[in-house]
Every structure is written in structure tokens, then in C-alpha cells.
Amino acid sequence: MVPFKKQPEYPDFWLEYLNCFKNKNSTDIDMSRFIAFDTETTGFDRKEDRVLSIGAVSFVGKTIEVNNSLELYLEQDIFKAETVKIHGLMKNGSLEKVSELEAIKTFLEYIKNDVLIAHHASFDRNMINEMLSRHGLGKLKNKFIDTGILYKKSLHIIYQDNTKPYTLDYLCKELHVPTVDRHTATGDALITAFVFLKILSRLDKRKHLNWGYLLNR
To answer: Is 184's pLDDT higher than 80?
Structure first.
């Protein structure tokens, strides 16, 4: 006889997040809410490293809701001095920091069931999912758009180059997007939003502005 497996008791904030997906989002791209986000971390190992900060901006159509951005700094249980020169976040400082669990709650409340946008999105998604896993929660349910992949798709086939990394700096240069506050989570989130909107404009001109194209189907 197979023993009965007790279902985990999830906290209310996780259940509220899951309930968001019972509501359908707008099918009109111009009316949909997008969330561009970025994480600064202690390194690139999703198991061993930790998220130091999360930045996010939301927008509908071409209007970025600057006054409704998200900026979180997390308590540093793991500290790697060699990465400070990249993100500039010290273990101790004047910035107000929250626990990892509090950061998760705030982030989920902010993103709801909206479409998430990130550059090299799999990394940021994996880092957030590891945070969720450490607290006994499931993975992010949101749809994702990777600006690196989308930019390459927006090029004419003869101009695509698989040897190029299509970094965020490269895209900013090609699309004439200022790199203000580069390597801060909120700064990179805002830059990613501008990059995404520039790519959307290109896709619109080529009649490729549809969900199937955006979501890599």
C-alpha cells in the first residue's frame, strides 16, 4: 500500500501569487503589463551563490512606470569580495536590506502574473527559482522573454551571427540605449525595458509583433 503523501502547506503569499494565474491577461500586446527585471548576485552558480539585489520596472504599451519600480537589497549571508567591483554592494553599509523570504514576498506581489523580461533570462529565472526552492516553494509561473534571443530574432536572417554573445552592452550600443546605472539591478532593469521597447518597434515595422514571436514559440 502506497503511503498517503501529505500536501505541503504553502504560505498565503504564495497561494495569492498562484491565484493570479486564474485570471487571463490581455491578449493585446499594447495593453499588456510587462515587467523588466534584473538580479545582482555573488556569482554565477545558482546553487552556491546568492541574489544580492533585485530591480524591476513595469510598463504598459510604451509607458514605463518609473514611479512604480521595485528595488530590493538582500541581507548577504554569502559575501564574495571579488564581485564587489562589479555590483558595488558591500556586506555592511547604509542600504536598507531585507531577508531573502521578505524579498520573495515583495517580488511576487509586484510581478503577479505579468510577462517577465530579462537579458539572458534563464540566469535570473534560475536564481529566483533557487530562492523559492530554499523556502519550499515552487518555480515562477510567469511567461518569460529574453531580450538577447529576441534581438537576434529581430535581425534579418543574413545578419544573425551565432558567434556574438549579444550582451546587454552590445544591444545598448546597437540600439542607441544609454547605459546609465549599468550593473545595478534597477538600472539594468530599466535599460532592459528600453532595449525591449526598441526591439518591439523593429518587430512592429516588420509585422512580427505577436505573442508567438515574442515568446519564442
So the answer is: yes
Q: How many CA atoms lie within 13 A of 143 on its CB side?
A: 16
> Alpha-carbon dihedral of residues 204, 206, 210, 216, nearest 10 degrees?
-120
Output phi, psi for 2, to 5 deg.
-75, 125
Closest CA to 37 of 15, 50, 48, 53: 53
Count of other CB atoms within 10 angstroms of residue 30: 11
**pLDDT tens-digit profile of 71-103?**
999 988 765 555 544 445 545 566 789 999 999
> CA-CA distance, 80 to 4, in Å (whole number)?
44
CA separation for the pair 198, 171 (Å, rounded): 10
Q: By three-state DSSP, how is residue 48 classified?
A: coil
Letter string b/e over residues 192-216, b meaning 16 or more CB atoms within 10 A of that residue's CB: bbbbbbbbbeebeeeeebeeebbee
* Grid cell in block for residue 38: 534584473
Q: How many CA atoms lie within 13 A of 119 on its CB side?
A: 28
Phi/psi of residue 168, each to 5°? Answer: -65, -40
Whole-model pTM? 0.86
**The amino acid at 150:** L
Contact, 35 vs 56, CB < 8 A? yes
C-alpha cell of residue 195 = 532595449
Q: Which residues pair with 10 in a beta bridge?
A: none
Rounded-to-integer distance, Cα 69 and Cα 61, Å? 16
Query: Do residues 116 and 35 lie in contact, with contact meaning Cβ atoms separated by under 8 Å?
Result: yes
